[in-house]
Amino acid sequence: MQDDAANPTLHEYAADDLQKLGYTQEMTRSRGLSHVLFTYGLVAPIATSLAAGGPATIIWGWVAVSLLTLPLACSLGEICAKYPTSAGAYYWCFRLASPRRKLLLSWINGWLTISGVWTISLSVNFGTAQLVVAGAGIYLPGWSVQPWHTYLIFLAVMAVVVVFCVFFNAILPTIDVISAFWTLLGVIVVLVCVSIKAAAGRHSAAFALGHFDSFSSGWTPGWAFFIGLLPVAYTFAAIGMIASMAEEVRNPSLNLPKAIVWSIPIGFLCGMLFLVPILFTLPDIATLISVPNCQPVGLMFELIMGSKGGGFGLWFIIFGIGMFCAISISCAASRATWAFARDAAIPFHRTFAKVNKQLSGGIPFNAILLSTAIQLLLGLIYLGSSAAFNAFVGVAVMCLGASYAMPVAISLANGRKDMSDSPFHLGRFGPALNAAAVVWAAFEMVLFSMPPVLPVTSTSMNYASVVFVAFALISAGWYLISKLLVYIRDQSKFP
């Protein structure tokens, strides 16, 4: 079979298909399946799961969320295969909804999507900065980390990310492949090292796979387990962002749904290889959840390895995964921003919809700057309240989950008649998979509105619902303003 990269006919077909969807091919199609088959996982903080049950919550939560997310991935893959555009979910709503409601629904979905991609990208970049703090804590245990220290590290992470997105766009597909190998080899190294060393002691299978203690969370045992799903659900929150790269992918109707769906079992397998040996060698849970920055990875590896050098070595593997994820997800966020601007849905859309052909073969440079600026501004909230900033993790999952569920729900309500000719048709399992996807996305929104621990204080309060409403108000306000501007423009045409 001829390779996609060497087959110009496939590029022509993809450009023609994009033209039929209403868009002109502006990006270079330089990515294949292996370049978009990425997962944003493993570096998610585990402190919440440790407090909300411990080993049983971590391992069985990972299994449960992986299974629950798979129907959503299948449903998104089916729709994406028919409408492979960087506009993603809001375009799917426009095509699937009735003529009377499609503009409003696509507008709502678009702002959910753009709010979600900005905040999920922010959380990954800031989380990587917090990983740096955790790594420094191995050698500087007495360092009193101030919020502005973390923010400065965040600026450094963002600087590296922007440099790669702007000046190394041509090699980003290769970097994504390197990231996949780094993750796989890193997981194997962690598995071998912690299994052999186990300086903090070894646990029985009953403890590693069944120990459950929710006392630290304050919640009742049953609900504590669900609260402990937060880090796992966050890991799979960005699966739909693969569609943001649609207009740079060869043969997108085939490769995009494969990438979206296969990201779940691949992520699940890597997660199991990573988590199981850690749970069998887990240090004292109370010590880990008492870490000031709520990022116990550095201390955990130091205690397991029995030395600072060993702990730092394993921490560096996780830090590398974090940086690779930060670059990939920031790139996807910039494409989503560019696509939204192309559809004139944000202020100064003409500026942010431009593709700079002089840089790296063509990139949405202004959209990259906008996405970066939004993240830098939102990151300032951490200087005033870490609790308010942590809400962005929750609101990212809520926004993205709602944006994914909308086109699936619309298609399901239409009797799935629009999906009959999808290249990735789900067949007779389609209705059940769609229904499971919508139910899970709705439950996620409830879950991420809950505080992680009780009793609730100003520090432990989950402000995700407040931030979610704030973004909704901004979206509604700009919708009314845009309608007013259109009305004024139309009126000016008449004497």
Automatic annotation (TrEMBL):
<protein>
    <submittedName>
        <fullName>Amino acid/polyamine transporter I</fullName>
    </submittedName>
</protein>
<dbReference type="GO" id="GO:0016020">
    <property type="term" value="C:membrane"/>
</dbReference>
<feature type="transmembrane region" description="Helical">
    <location>
        <begin position="312"/>
        <end position="338"/>
    </location>
</feature>
<feature type="transmembrane region" description="Helical">
    <location>
        <begin position="220"/>
        <end position="247"/>
    </location>
</feature>
<dbReference type="GO" id="GO:0006865">
    <property type="term" value="P:amino acid transport"/>
</dbReference>
<feature type="transmembrane region" description="Helical">
    <location>
        <begin position="389"/>
        <end position="413"/>
    </location>
</feature>
<feature type="transmembrane region" description="Helical">
    <location>
        <begin position="179"/>
        <end position="200"/>
    </location>
</feature>
<feature type="transmembrane region" description="Helical">
    <location>
        <begin position="33"/>
        <end position="53"/>
    </location>
</feature>
<dbReference type="InterPro" id="IPR002293">
    <property type="entry name" value="AA/rel_permease1"/>
</dbReference>
<dbReference type="GO" id="GO:0022857">
    <property type="term" value="F:transmembrane transporter activity"/>
</dbReference>
<keyword id="KW-0812">Transmembrane</keyword>
<keyword id="KW-1133">Transmembrane helix</keyword>
<keyword id="KW-0813">Transport</keyword>
<dbReference type="InterPro" id="IPR004840">
    <property type="entry name" value="Amino_acid_permease_CS"/>
</dbReference>
<dbReference type="Pfam" id="PF13520">
    <property type="entry name" value="AA_permease_2"/>
</dbReference>
<feature type="transmembrane region" description="Helical">
    <location>
        <begin position="259"/>
        <end position="280"/>
    </location>
</feature>
<feature type="transmembrane region" description="Helical">
    <location>
        <begin position="359"/>
        <end position="383"/>
    </location>
</feature>
<feature type="transmembrane region" description="Helical">
    <location>
        <begin position="59"/>
        <end position="83"/>
    </location>
</feature>
<feature type="transmembrane region" description="Helical">
    <location>
        <begin position="425"/>
        <end position="443"/>
    </location>
</feature>
<keyword id="KW-0472">Membrane</keyword>
<feature type="transmembrane region" description="Helical">
    <location>
        <begin position="104"/>
        <end position="128"/>
    </location>
</feature>
<feature type="transmembrane region" description="Helical">
    <location>
        <begin position="463"/>
        <end position="481"/>
    </location>
</feature>
<feature type="transmembrane region" description="Helical">
    <location>
        <begin position="148"/>
        <end position="172"/>
    </location>
</feature>
